[in-house]
Amino acid sequence: MAAPHISGIVALLKSMHPTWSPAAIKSALITTAQEKDPLGAPILAEGSPPKLPDPFNYGGELVNPNAVADPGLIYDLAIADCVKYYLCGMGYKTSHISQLMKQKIGCPLQRPSVSDLNLPTITVPALRNSTTVTRTVTNVGKSSSMYRAVIRAPPGTRVSVEPRVLVFNSRVKKISFKVTISAVLHMNYGYSFGNLIGSDGVHPVKTPLSSN
């Protein structure tokens, strides 16, 4: 029943924000999701006995229909971003990309990092020393607002954010920031998880983090 519920929420959200892109809607769903069920109990993975899950079990966590309508900040994407950071970043030939897009496409001389695709999650699949990724958020809440970062680093890592405080006003609606994830303890059990929460005191905008 998950897909019908999400479809209904997305339809309502699109009626409230008709100009939002699919990426903006996805961002609102993920960054406002809850770690616990409506009764305050942790979400459990299926099995016998039930176990505490990780994000690979529950995905973007439990959707919060009320919070989705007013997420505060969103991670947005345009088709050009997907071409630059995904198709060009993956190293596809420009001739193949042009054929797919039905127009002439040129990739940057320096291959972009796929990790910089502006998704509402950050995953580092092969962390050795440190990796820095860039994200851009768009303010869809009060025009004058300030968000401070709170970091829950994945176990075995150190995470820093620059800048740590984002200040929006009527002229500044988009701000980019960098997240650096560094390995401080090499673990052999696979992925570890954390999150980055930016809050203005009203909107806790949560960005899931994972590293391996």
From TrEMBL:
Primary subcellular site in the record, as a coarse category: secreted
Entry GO MF terms: serine-type endopeptidase activity
Q: Which GO biological process categories is it annotated with?
A: proteolysis
Keyword field: Hydrolase, Protease, Serine protease, Signal
The protein, known as: Subtilisin-like protease SBT3.6
* Gene3D superfamilies membership: 2.60.40.2310, Peptidase S8/S53 domain (3.40.50.200)
Gene name?
LOC111008315
Q: Which residues form the Peptidase S8/S53 domain?
A: 1-36
Q: Which organism is it from?
A: Momordica charantia
